[in-house]
Amino acid sequence: MAGLVCAAMLAAACSDDEAAPRSTDNVDAGEARPDAAPPSEATDAGDAGDAGDVIEPCSPGDERKATVGAGGAKLSLCGATLEVPEGALEAGTPVAITVVAPPGAPWFEHELSGPVFRFTPDTGPLDLPAKISFTRDTTKTRGPVLAQWFPEENGWGEYEACFKDDQLSLNTVHLGTFGLMQDVNSYPPSASDQGAANVSLTLGDVTTSWTVPGNGGYSVYEPSADSRSFILVARREEGEHTQQLDIRGSLRNGEPATVVQVSWLTTDFENGKSWSWVEPIHGPPTSFTMTETSPGVFSGEIHVIGHYGEETTNIDVTFTTTPVKYRPPPSYSCGRPEGDPR
C-alpha cells in the first residue's frame, strides 16, 4: 500500500545521484507525450550561474531554450529551473524547458499544482545528474509532491524530492515531463487522537479493554482508487510503562477485508514480552472478519498466533471502530545516498 500499511523507502532526491520513483495509479491519458511548441530562438547559456527570466503568463507552448556552455547551463521558466552541471552534456548541446499540456490526469484525490514542464534533452540519460526545481504554491497548507510522466506506463510516478525554501527539487540523469501534485483534501497535522474505537484484547489467557482515542491512540484510514488501508492503534498506561496494540489491514472494494499485521508492544522490557504477527512472514491469520455495521462504523474479530522469538501465544481481538480519513504528509529528503563519495 502506498501510504499507511506498506510505506516504501525511496532514494534521496536532493543528492547528486538519481532518485527512485514511486509508481502510482495508471490512467488512460491518450497521447503519451505532448508535442512541444515550435522552437524559440536559442541562446548560449554560458556559465552555469546565468539564469533565464521567467516568462509570464505561463501556458502550453511557452518555452525557454539555451545551449550548454563551458560551465554547463541554467535556465528558468514560470517557476521551473533546470541546472545542467559541467560534464553532464557536451558543450553546444541545446537544452530547454517547455510548458506542455498535462499528458494524463493526476492520481487519486490529487490535482496539478501549477504547470507541467518538459525538460529536454530527454531521449537518454545524462552523463551527470541535472537539477530540476519548482516553486511551490505557498497558499497550500500541505506541501506538494513531485511527479514525472512515464509514457511507457501511461501514468505518473512520484519522487521523494527535496523541499527547502518553498522549492521542490530533484537531481536526476533522466529529464522528461514533470509537474507538482497537490492533495485535494485537508488533514490534521498528525494521526494521534483521531478516530474512535473500543477494543477487547485477549493475549494468552489475559483479557484487557482498550479505548481510542487515549494516550495518543488513533483509528484512521487512507483511501486509494480501489481500497482503503486502515490502522488501529490503541495505547494504555500500566504503572510506569506503556502498552500498545497495533492492527493494520485493508478494505478493498467488493472484496473481503484483509489484515496484514497485529502487534502488542510493551515498554516493560524486564517483565513483559512484545508479540507480533505479520502476514507475509507468519502466514494467514487463524481467522479475521471486518464488516461495516453502519455508515463509517466497522466491527471486527481477529485471531492470530503472536511471535516472540521462538515463543508463540494466541492474540484474539474484537473491536468496533469509527476511523477517520487521513493521509500522512509527503515525505521529502535532501541528503545524499549512502556511498556517495562527494
Task: Describe the structure concisely for a colleague.
Helices cover 1% and strands 48% of the residues.
Describe the model.
Helices cover 1% and strands 48% of the residues. By secondary structure, it is mainly β. It folds into 2 domains: 21-183, Chondroitinase Ac, Chain A, domain 3 (Sandwich), CATH 2.60.220.30; 196-325. The strands form 4 sheets. Strands 1, 2, 3, 6, 7, 8, 10, 11 and 14 form a 9-stranded mixed sheet that branches. A 6-stranded mixed sheet has the order 21-20-19-18-17-25. A 5-stranded antiparallel sheet has the order 4-5-9-13-12, with no helix packed on it. The two termini are 34 Å apart.
Task: Show the helix and strand layout.
Layout: E1 21-26, E2 44-46, E3 63-68, E4 73-77, E5 80-84, E6 94-100, E7 110-112, E8 116-120, E9 130-135, E10 145-150, E11 155-159, E12 162-164, E13 167-172, E14 177-183, E15 196-203, E16 206-212, E17 218-223, E18 227-238, E19 241-252, E20 258-266, E21 275-278, H1 279-282, E22 287-294, E23 297-308, E24 311-322, E25 324-325
Parallel strand pairs: 2-3, 17-25
Antiparallel strand pairs: 1-11, 3-6, 4-5, 5-9, 6-8, 7-14, 8-14, 9-13, 10-11, 10-14, 12-13, 15-16, 15-24, 17-18, 18-19, 19-20, 20-21, 22-23, 23-24
Q: Helix and strand string, N-terminal first? A: EEEEEEEEEEEEEEEEEEEEEHEEEE
CATH fold label of the largest domain: Chondroitinase Ac, Chain A, domain 3
Kindly state the mean pLDDT as a whole number? Answer: 83
User: Care to count the β-strands?
Assistant: 25
- Globally, the shape reads elongated
